[in-house]
Amino acid sequence: MDDHHIELLTTLREKYEKVRRLLEDSKKDPEDDPYHSKYAAREILNDIKSSLVKILDDVGGMGDGEGNGDHLHVPGVFRLSSLLGVMWLNLGTIAVETEEISTGEEQLMQCLKCIPEEKWLEPEAVLVILCTLQQLGILWAQRDNAEKAQGFLERAEKLYNEFRELSSPPPVDMVQLFNFGANKDNGDDNEHNETNKILSGENAMEKAHTHTLYYLAQVYGTLGNTSKSAVYCHTTLKRMLERKEYEVVDWALNSATLSQFFITRNYFKQAKHHLAASSFMLDQFESEVIKEDDRGEELEAKWTNFHHRSADVARCWAKYGLVLLTASRQRLMKLAGEDMDDDDDDENGKSEIEAENEGDNSLLKESTDQLWFTSLELLPYEEQVTDKYALTYEDAKAIFLNAQEWLRKAREFYQFDSHASDHVQIVQDQSQLYKYLAFFEENEDRQCRMHKRRVDLLEPIMKELNPQYYLLVCRQIWFELAEIYSDMMDIKLARMQESDERPTPHALRKINLLAEQSISNFNKYVDSLRIHSTNEMPKKFDEDTVRPVLLAHFYLGRLHSKIIQPDKKAQLENICESINKYKFVVEYCEEHEDAKKVMGVELGISKEMVTLLSLKMDRIKKLLDQQA
Length: 628
What we know:
By secondary structure, the chain is an all-alpha fold. The chain has helices spanning about 5-25, 35-60, 75-95, 100-115, 125-140, 145-165, 190-220, 225-240, 250-265, 270-290, 295-340, 350-355, 360-365, 380, 395-415, 420-440, 445-465, 470-500, 505-525, 545-560, 570-590, 595-600, 600-625.
């Protein structure tokens, strides 16, 4: 390659560096011209590409990237081909980012054609090919073709791993590809410059690989392989942490979000670790922001984002406690019902995980001992709450108090006036915490007080919610309130039946009042499902509604039969109402085969109760006739 070509390459390098600056500045482009900088960069790239093609023709031919690859053995041609690949890569990336997807695909594929596959592991080519495969993966993900995206991203991952196994020189940074002969850095600090070049190539490759893992995590999630997605998410977060390539608040939120996956599989130890990492990072961020002297809008925006995301992490912690209590309750009920040995479930509850298998869990199981952020000191955060199942009331209470505190912190940000939906969800979580704590409480009076706390949380919220705008939420709360009052009634009834003493009028009125309040809320739920124009119930309920609405009728049948009435005529009215509710369940299931599957036991009980209550009604009628 002669001096003229080397001098031209120096000029082209300057142009390419201008391209990089334009792409960086594109983030600041105005909303009415969002691609201004990218379009300007594209013009320069096309100019550089044309010049490189001409140089290739002059030096060794095949500037179009076609051929059998023999021309690559001409000195400098392989490096020039890699440079040409860089231009196609940048052009393709810009096309994808400016919504010219088909053009982007053609340009990215052209990049792969510039360099024969047997040369992809060469230091001058590996970074270019790695980034191109990654961009093709992103492109196909945008086209909602996760399988094809997976193929390109896995090729990128494989290329990185194969290159790391070689004892070859470090990858060449894309800017350094312009350095030929005389235009290489000279001077006394040449050794320092060479070190910077090596680090630049290494850093670019490691950063690209982190992005590949990130996109693979998304693609695996889309394909339903949630376990593999979780492992790749963790690996990405760990690499970002170790390489200090992260925004603290975003990293903390992503770690907390990942904890929710582990919670669903009852991997509480791993879930707690990721939540602890989130809290650790947020505390670090807070301590750094406090030290900043600036008090401008930028700092205010930082604080707002910090408080928002801290509230989100607090909700994730609370969900951890709630799910741990739920799983503890399920485990104890299963042990009691099936007389299982404690050894059947290990400390992380893997039998439940296997039962909820979604995709391939083998990778997750193999990786559980490696899913840690070993560089962080997390013990003080992890010691705040257990990751073991609750066995006693004291165990449950400790989990409950921790979760309640996190919900209190979340409510400080998610106020009803500004974040109504989130605020209501937090209140619902508070109610659920009391529900599961009550399971561990043996004292019936304290159980009732816990359920009363749930009522005190939910009923004020209902006064603030307009069903016209929050119908789904209102339905949830009506149903939950109905269940709460029903549970309280059952506790009172059980105590009365166990006592040898005659029940007082006050105790009877209390039981009836609780039954009536439960009935009222179930009726509000059922009425909300009526067709507005006709006020009639739908002939067929959708899949999400069918079981709740049939359960509501089932419970209404039970509640009407539990009301204590000395007056026979009033008894008759309640029994008749009870039969009608049970009949609704039976008749709907007879008309809709799919409903039988979701009702199961309740359908059998409903059939029995229709028969039994009909006989009871006949007996009462006879008594009334005799009295008449």
